Structures
1.
Amino acid sequence: MPRPPKFRRVAFLPPFLVYKPQGVPLEGMEVINLTVEEMEALRLKDLEGLDQEDCANHMGISRPTFQRLLVGARAKVAEALTEGKALRIGGGNFMLVTQHRCERCYEEWEASLGEACPRCGAPPAGRGRCRRRRGL
């Protein structure tokens, strides 16, 4: 029995899910599917300019796995651009993570939605009381 797929950490969701040549209707056009984690690999490496080890750490995967995602993503984008195909972004095995900042102790951390502050245990977005400042 194969091992269940590991979720990749993604900090960005694109504002649009389909990119296509201008003036051509989407109906009947060939569509290439780019997963959300492939889009994140492109963003981290090509837009943010991080090295592969840092990119892999951000996504919570190994460097060879990151390299495979990046190569596949670049090939899909190149095919869509050179052959006039539509590019649809969606799907994959990912977990959305965001930057949080505790309103009580000002700790900053990257976490899944809903995780409490790792320093003082306060709920996200300042709901509730900070355990660290109870005596103040």
2.
Amino acid sequence: MYDQSFNYISIARMLRKNDFYVHPHLRSQTIKEKELEDAAALSTQGFAGYNFLSSTLIRGKNVYRIPKFSDELVLRKIDRNLRKAKPLYSPSRDTIIAKLSNLLAESVQCKIYRLDIKSFYESLDTSLAINEVNAIKSLSPQTKKFIKDILDNFASTGGRGLPRGLAISATLSEIVMNSFDGHINSLPNVFFYCRYVDDIIVITSGTESSKQFIKNLSESLPSGLLLNKKKEDVCPAPDSTPFKPTAQNPINQAIYSLEYLGYSFSVYEPAKKFEPREVVLDIAESKIKKIKTRLTKAYIDYNKNKDFGLLELRMKFLTSNFSVMDINRGGYRLAGIFHNYHRISFSKSSALDKLDVFLKTATLSSYGKVFYDFYCNTNSLQRRRLLTFSFKKGFRDRTYMHFSRSQFTAARECWEYA
């Protein structure tokens, strides 16, 4: 049986292998024991009136972190207790993309709703979260009290909703949203529903009123949450059975397209009746823009520091693949141009070509202040070296690079929040 108690031994089990890499001082037995003793002391003292968070403003929103490692260990234990007492199934991004691609291939009439919850973490009702936690019979009273004290203290210091950036906030949000997810999934005209944090996608039979469906879905949201009207998108798909290709409606013309979780989906009618539609996946336009912005910021930073080695490091980072530490889950995961978008249709991808064209244009063009200054600050040999990098090649060859922690930090520094 899982031990929910808070003590030196149970908190020591919260240590992860990568902790000793991120915090090298933990390799000292004395320091490690001191951190565990401090964590055990906090679990005895409790969180009432204890402010343990620091925040950074990112894209207009406060993102919180836990500066003290001993505090982080106790929060991990609280989150582990919560997840053990209330197991929730949260499909991975890759699983969602695979299922969605298969469903869009079905040659039937449907409607696809793309919806977004406005200020998700900040708008969640903390009293609702506390009530949901208190209703979990298998969760220990001490864990329940810690969660209540943390949320009460967060609110008393001016915080809204749940503190964005913490693993426990993600867990609490999933618990609060669980009944909503089940309700939407059970609706008779819904045959696919998925929510990835605040991003919602629903596929229905297509016979309902879109306006009324969105209204009903919005009214079913937990207290405090609202849909972002600016990000509502409804895409109707016709029945393919009577489809006949014509000059006005050729096979090679997409009948509809949408973006979800960093991918674009372009759907084409089948060449023959009763065959599945063709679904072509590519990198979403919003992500293409993000990568272009990062490349431009790398060139801007080079104009300031003239560090060509750092610029090359950033080009490797953007065009290759690597392993990255997963702070919330512990350990490492693969990332990069292939691993982030491995489901795209490579032979039909226009995104990779667009990125390579932009890289070439940015390197060789002298149009605009940024690129004119960059052209003046580099020589022909340096520009030729930059042109050896390729997004398409990095994807096709699955080029893999190793970055030390200091290199990883340096590479991301100029675009950390871009």
